[in-house]
Amino acid sequence: MNKNPTDTDEQFKLGLCYLNGDGVPQDMKKAVYWITEAAKQDHAEAQSFLGDSFNEMGNIKKAAYWWAKAAEQGDASAQNNVGICYENGDGVPQDLEKAEYWYTKAAEQGNEEAQINLDDLLKNG
């Protein structure tokens, strides 16, 4: 694998390799660097990954930012996560119309969690 890739898929994969120590020494700084490089260049999977990572670290504002980037590119999981953020006002102002919009986008792609969330929102919202 190229240690200085310019292709976003390769950057993301290299970041995951550094994250897991797969074929290279484990290095969190390099992992974050390469995954972020891919995300900044509109790699939806890298953006969604960063959203998940920031959420796990308790930084919901940054998580919502990266999920929104991935959601705009059609990532169904990120769309559902953005819907959750808008429904609960986590990292973004609460907006039930936007929550419904993002749940619907994800549900239309077959995301089961989004289908459940949309159904619950429409029943209770």
What's this model, at a glance?
This protein is mainly α and 125 residues long. The protein is built from seven helices and no strands. The model has no long low-confidence stretch (mean pLDDT 95).
**What gyration radius follows from the Cα positions, in whole Å?**
16 Å
How many helices? The count is 7
Mean pLDDT: 95
Order of helical and strand elements: HHHHHHH
How far is the N terminus from the C terminus?
49 Å
The percent range for helix content is over 70%
Main β sheet profile: none
| Uncertain residue segments | none
What overall form do the CA principal axes indicate?
A: elongated
Percent of residues in β-strands:
under 5%
Q: How many beta-strand segments?
A: 0
The secondary structure category is mainly alpha
Attribute tags:
125 residues; mainly alpha; elongated
Account of the protein in words:
The protein is mainly alpha-helical. The protein has a domain at 60-124. Helix content is 73%, strand content 0%. It has helices at 8-20, 28-40, 44-56, 60-72, 76-88, 96-108, 112-124. Helix 4 crosses helix 5 and helix 5 (76-88) packs parallel to helix 7 (112-124). The longest helix has 13 residues, at 8-20. The radius of gyration is 16 Å and the shape is elongated. It starts with 7 loop residues before the first helix and ends with a helix. The relative contact order is 0.10.
